[in-house]
Design brief:
about 100 residues, elongated, alpha+beta
Length: about 100
């Protein structure tokens, strides 16, 4: 006979945390398939890494990410920014 099913009990907070981590993993797998203009796999920066590159706060990154086509929200609290997209954006903002 088969083994009886085990019942797992989770608090709402634990369940939300598990779902958020699963969504983040799935999104990162999908993002890993993205490629930059040169055909190489793009690197996806955390909000903290992007903020360091731009010398701004992470709050600034989260506020501006909605306008950037090279930023992806993985969940309510997680954001990734394409390194190639960010570098193109920086280059476009520099005076000629």
């Amino acid at each position: 006979m088969s083994e009886p099913a085990k019942i797992i009990t989770l608090t709402l907070g634990e369940l939300e945390s598990l779902l958020e981590r699963a969504a983040e993993r799935g999104a990162m797998r999908a993002l890993a398939g993205d490629q930059s203009d040169n055909g190489c796999a793009d690197r996806w920066l955390t909000a903290e890494e992007a903020a360091t590159r731009l010398n701004v706060t992470t709050g600034w990154i989260y506020r501006h990410a909605e306008k950037w086509p090279f930023a992806r929200r993985l969940s309510r609290k997680n954001l990734r920014v394409s390194e190639a997209g960010l570098l193109r954006w920086i280059a476009a903002r520099r005076p000629s």
